[in-house]
Amino acid sequence: MSNLYYHTFFKWWTPADLEEISNLFQVNYTVIKHKGESGDNDSSIYRDDRDEVEVKSDNMVAFLSKFRATLSQVKDTPLNLGDVELRDMIKDHYPRDRPTPFPWEWNPEPKLMAVK
Question: Which of 45, 80, 98, 112 has the smallest count of CB within 10 Å of its CB?
């Protein structure tokens, strides 16, 4: 079993403004925008919510969407302050540990590796 950090954070009510978040994170991190594609016959209720922003630091990568942010460690090496700052910024924008306000689907955050 891997000891790499992996966690998903959530927002519950108000969707994240991905353009604003992109501008905020690109000051210190690499930001890549991914446009979600929908076909003419797409009847999914999520067809307009498929855009994502990818944010990279030295040893972390995050995929941010309107209601969810998945953060994962890239290498099995100690995190640096920039990696921890990325995690803290994401937690500020996506403050929940589970996808719903109802008391199920517990998703405890794992411990971070030592910071170098």
Answer: 45
